Amino acid sequence: MTELLIPDTVAEPLNLADPRNFLNRELSSLAFHRRVLEEALDPSLPLLERVKFLAIFSTNLDEFFMIRVSGIRQQVAARVFERSADGKTPFEQLRAIRAAVAPLMELQRACFIQDLQPKLAAEGVFIQEYSQLSIHQQAWLKNYFDNEIFPVLTPLAFDPGHPFPHISNLSLNLAVVIQDPDSDEHFARIKVPASLPRLVSVPSEQPNTVCYTWLEQIIAENISTLFPGMQVSEAYTFRVIRNADVEIEEDEAADLLETIQAGVRQRRFGSVTKLSVHSTMPPRIVDLLIDNLEVERDDVYQLNGSLDLSSLMSVVRLDRWQLKLPPFKPSVPAVLSTGEDIFNVVQRRDVLLHHPYDSFMPVVDFLQAAARDPNVLAIKQTLYRVGSNSPIVKALLKARENDKQVAVLVELKARFDEENNIEWAKALEREGVHVVYGLMGLKTHCKVALVVRKERDGVSRYLHLGTGNYNAVTANIYTDLGLLTCNPDFGADASDLFNFLTGYSRQSQFRKLWIAPINLRRRLTHMIEREIQHQQAGRSGKLIFKMNSLVDPNIIQLLYRASQAGVEIQLLVRGMCSLRPGVEGLSETIQVKSIVGRFLEHSRLYYARNGGDEQLYVGSADLMERNLDRRVEVLFPIEDPSLLNYIREEILGVAWRDTAKARILLPNGLYGCHLPPAGEEPFDSQMYFLRRHTA
Questions:
Q1: Is the pLDDT reported for residue 678 higher than 90?
Q2: Which residues belong to the annotated binding site for Mg(2+)?
Q3: Among residues 654, 668, 576, 561, which one has the least CA distance to residue 622?
Q4: Rounded to an integer, what distance in angstroms lies between the CA atom of residue 463 and that of residue 475?
Q5: CA atoms within 13 A of residue 226's CA, in its CB half-sphere
Q6: H or E element that contains 544
Q7: What is d(CA 232, CA 174) in angstroms, rounded to the nearest whole number?
Q8: Cα distances (Å, whole numbers) of residue 165 to 11, 158, 290
Q9: CA angle 309–420–306, rounded 5-degree value
Q10: Which helix or strand (DSSP H or E) is residue 680 part of?
Q11: Cβ partners under 8 Å of residue 687, min gap 6
């Protein structure tokens, strides 16, 4: 594993802000990516599940370079010397990232070439080099090239009369060397078209088997067709990753929608943050690419085999169920399964949904019922990532068709979902929905749906509040919580929140909800400080937090203070964690675990024992500066004692007992396996929930 070079002990007297007390967030992010890669290396998983994790690792690493590495490179270019919380300059962080990434990429390729590829072949799924194919298969591919590939290709020359062609973000390319009988060698670039399948299905010559080969190899083998009368002497693959973190200058944008659209287009032209080349590429071609792409030599990675393994996801979709985990059918809570009107149910009691084990359909049903109910006056909702063919958006459109007042905040700045959200925003606007794009300088990340309904005793407000996006697809693979409620205080706070989001409001007081950037940091700080006071007064303090990331320096220092006071602290942090647990005199009572499994752990929960008067908040916010200070986030309390007890024991407690997929963060930043007690089988928390909800 990639070791973080941080001392195991902290000198006295303790300064909580000492850089030695923090783990580097970028290296912690890479440690998470390694945990994803470890799932691909796990022989106990079905074969295609392992392939899936290998593809996910590839996509994750691409995004890491597009966003995190590009941001640090920009700091280096701007001669920024400000140090990170752990004391590293941007240049030092880049150097540490490069040292950590190279072995990860080598491990990934070894996993595929030496382990997964042979095992797939043994199961009749062949992913072969072009040279390994039979004469008949190559002949079939020649015909496929002539009819399907050749018409799409555009060779671009590079010489004094032709400028170096633009190489777009994430593109896979062939660098071609051509010998002209009448002159010196020439260079040309051919882009491997993303519009065609990257893994090309080839007629198999064995029964009950499938065979694939790589698109770029088919092009390379037939490349002379593109240069008639010339001699193609060499062809090498290379791949470019560019800066995709395009800054949006909102204060200079007359129309945020147009600005976001322009920003998405600009991603193709950002500076190069990573150049991957095949290991056979000679130095003179590497130098040519370095010079013309203006990339640092340290940002060049020479690799064997395919330069992009994210395309393996197409193999995962094969109908080979014996090579996958058994499918499951999410359940619907019994209280919502009787056919009773959903508003009547929610009026009597709060309803908790635990996705993906509980179906997402009750959320869709809630909005569909609101769309057709003649007593519903208005629907207000935030949309962050909704996906394509969204039943949520369709319900909102139906509501507007039925003359409901509908207001939707569409977050256009949801990274990599901008284009999807732009299309939905336009569709909603065309039907007369009030669409707004959030607050200047703040990304709206909260998950809130408010339904205003006329009833016998007046107007009531029904709410769905959640930790996850209103996305019916990701709801099947992300673990999230949602609450259906008609709590009057929640409803009043939600109305104030939407007024804050859609109009002019300086609302600073809320009854129940913790809302960033207004009061969430202050309330969370108070929660931790109060637990310190309980511990000092002899009332055993305890905090259990579950989140995606923990990197906010101020919150980390507060947790250190709580640990020094003796508060027991259990942290479930899926991804980045800059806190160093288990350090003598600093964080002895803090344990950190990370679970990477079949489903993406996505819910955020914050529990305090509070001297016996337990408090539990659930919502959209991670413990990062951006979430607490630069986003609109919502945490909501669980006030029903039975639901609070269920979440504490049956969600947080079960996750903490995991010994199958959990990893324990060590003081030096490495992660170790959480082994079960001697004689016991490993306990898989996600499988436990599947059995409970599908029995």
A1: no
A2: 385, 415
A3: 576
A4: 18
A5: 26
A6: strand 542-547
A7: 12
A8: 55, 7, 13
A9: 10
A10: none
A11: 598, 660
Check if the beta carbon of residue 274 is closer than 8 Å to that of residue 199: no
Q: Which helix (H) or strand (E) holds 317?
A: none
Cα–Cα distance measured from residue 22 to residue 668, given in angstroms and rounded to the nearest whole number:
10
Average pLDDT over all residues of the chain? 90
Going by the annotation, the residues of the binding site for ATP are 60, 478, 574, 602
pLDDT the model gives residue 385: 77
Is the distance from CB of 549 to CB of 523 less than 8 angstroms? no
**What is the amino acid identity at position 377?**
L
Q: Kindly state the DSSP code that residue 474 receives in the 8-state scheme.
A: G
Average pLDDT over residues 198-221: 95
Please tell me what DSSP assigns to residue 579. Answer: B
Total Cβ atoms within 10 A of residue 497 = 25
Give the integer Cα–Cα distance in Å for 578 and 335: 41
Q: Which residue has the tokens 């923090």?
A: 22
HSE-CB for 412 with a 13 A CA cutoff: 24
| Residues with Cβ within 8 Å of residue 679, at least 6 apart in sequence | none
Tokens of 581: 């647990």
- Taking only the tens place, the pLDDT of each residue in 175-208 is 999 887 666 788 999 999 999 999 999 999 889 9
Overall average pLDDT of the 346-369 stretch: 97
Out of 355, 445, 534, 693, the active site residue is 445
Query: Alpha carbon of 326 to those of 119, 279, 606, 636: distances in Å?
Result: 20, 39, 32, 34
Say if CB 6 and CB 96 are below 8 A apart.
Answer: no
The DSSP H or E segment spanning 125 is strand 125-128
Specify whether the CB–CB gap between 632 and 442 falls below 8 A: yes
**Displacement of CA 295 from its chain's centroid (Å):** 27
> How far separated are the first and last CA of the chain, in Å rounded?
39
pLDDT band at 259 (very low <50, low <70, confident <90, very high): very low
Q: Which residue numbers belong to the known binding site? A: 60, 385, 415, 478, 574, 602
- The predicted pLDDT at position 607 comes to 98
Q: Which of 125, 185, 337, 169 is nearest to 264 (CA)?
A: 169
Name 460's bridge partners. Answer: 453
The secondary structure of 181-242, three-state, reads: CCCCEEEEEEECCCCCCCEEEECCCCCCCEEEEEHHHHHHHCHHHHCCCCEEEEEEEEEEEE
- Give the alpha-carbon dihedral of 653, 659, 665, 666, to 10 degrees: 120
Instruction: State how far the Cα of 338 lies from the Cα of 23, in Å rounded to an integer.
Output: 50
Biggest alpha carbon–alpha carbon distance for the chain: 92
Higher pLDDT, 38 or 77: 38
- Active-site annotation holds for 445: yes
DSSP state of 588: T
Q: Which DSSP category does 268 fall into?
A: G
Beta strand 514-516 with 604-608: parallel, antiparallel or unpaired? unpaired
Displacement of CA 473 from its chain's centroid (Å): 14
